[in-house]
Amino acid sequence: MHKKWILSLAALVTVILLSATAGAQNYPKVRELRMDRQTPPQGVACIECHRQETPGIFADWAMSRHASAGITCLDCHQAQPGDKDIAVEHEKYYSMGDMPMGEKQYFVPIAAPVTPKDCSRCHPDEAKQYSKSKHANTIEIMWKIDPWLNQGMNSDNERKTGCFYCHGTVLKMKDGKLDPATWPNVGVGRLNLDGSLGSCTSCHTRHRFSVMEARKPETCGQCHLGPDHPQIEIYNESKHGDIYHAFKQEYNFDSAPGAWTPGVDYRAPTCASCHMSGSGKQPTTHDVTERLSWETQAPLTVRPQDFKPFPSGTDWQVERDKMRDICKQCHGNAWVDDHYTQFDKAVEEYNEAYFKPAKAILDQLYEKGLLDKSKFFDENLEVQYYELWHHEGRRARMGAAMMAPDYAWWHGFYECKHRFNHFMEEARHLIETNTKAYRYPDFPNTGGDTTRPVEIFGKQ
């Protein structure tokens, strides 16, 4: 009898323990956030208010490395008296009794946009490298080469919701708040009110600011996609992309900055692996202009130091050797050398067989007055010329650079041939018959401001 009682008690304990275990699996313990490093009362006020009012922002921050290091809202958002980007509207919260911590004693001036200048207080090297990159200076580059802007062929709001969302706006204040014509925006070349260029949250989205996120190709694919620069589609077609998608669950994306190692943390590279991460003898860089030996976005492919809108200030051979060092972490010399031989040949063929002849006959049409220079895109040949280099030509060159055969050929040179033939047929007909090109009378929604931003270019 005594033995049966003991067995029954043991069975009951087992059931209780299993039930507790099941409960623990179904109801994970809520993470407790601790305020360390003598967080000031104003910092606690920010956290407690946002915990209630914007729980998504709070949750992101609470899971970040910043939170683990005791970095609070104030470390990034606190402004100094006289700063141009102070959020005047935010000051009203400190006199609202129905807001948590809404008392004057917690008042601190804050700025909504956090800029590379703010981030540089803790990340000086990254901010300095970024400031030299094409990313940071993309507004200047865009205004120097883009006919949509310079000819006013789209509307200001089309630019705001499209072009500027990736390239960046020139931030302005209006009535104590950020001007909605320039905000919200996290474009890589955004001109901030403190004079700095860019937005770190383009790649490290707020408020997690994850290194893991910035290392994934999907992050770059937010902007690098579509008919004119389909790097994410090209990457996905390549062997690199194929391996990434097959084995990404095995990748260690949380490796410490500067320590992310091929063959240890990942099998095949992502965009960041080749263009930014440290590997071999190459240190990590936030200047994506490094390691490039051709400017494949340009109408005529040139070396980066010869790209007139934004010369790199580097030597292409030095930068190619850097990229070769990255490649050789996984590939042998013959593979790397032969790849560059093919890539260089693709660049030469694009320049000589397609772009230069098209540019020469376009100039001839302008000289003869058969095309009108006052606007761009209001005549068919201008559109054909633009898409030859800006769409098919880029896809051909970038496909060859990143080893994606479908983009190098079917979406690239194959389409170049057809675009070129149609362009030359119409151009020769106009010259032979001395006929002016038909102009579209109904080109819609034009009238965007053609004034270059004085904040970048000065008074014209």
Automatic annotation (TrEMBL):
Record keywords, A-Z: Signal
One GO MF term: oxidoreductase activity
Keyword Zinc-finger (UniProt): no
* InterPro entries linked: Cyt_c-552/4 (IPR023155), Multihaem_cyt_sf (IPR036280), Multiheme_Cytochr_ET (IPR051829)
- Gene3D superfamilies linked to this entry: Hydroxylamine Oxidoreductase, Chain A, domain 1 (1.10.780.10), Hydroxylamine Oxidoreductase, Chain A, domain 2 (1.20.850.10)
Q: Which residues form the Cytochrome c-552/4 domain?
A: 119-178
* Secretion signal, residue range per the UniProt entry: 1-24
Source organism, top-level taxon: Bacteria
Q: What is this protein called?
A: Hydroxylamine oxidoreductase
Q: Which organism is it from?
A: Pseudodesulfovibrio profundus
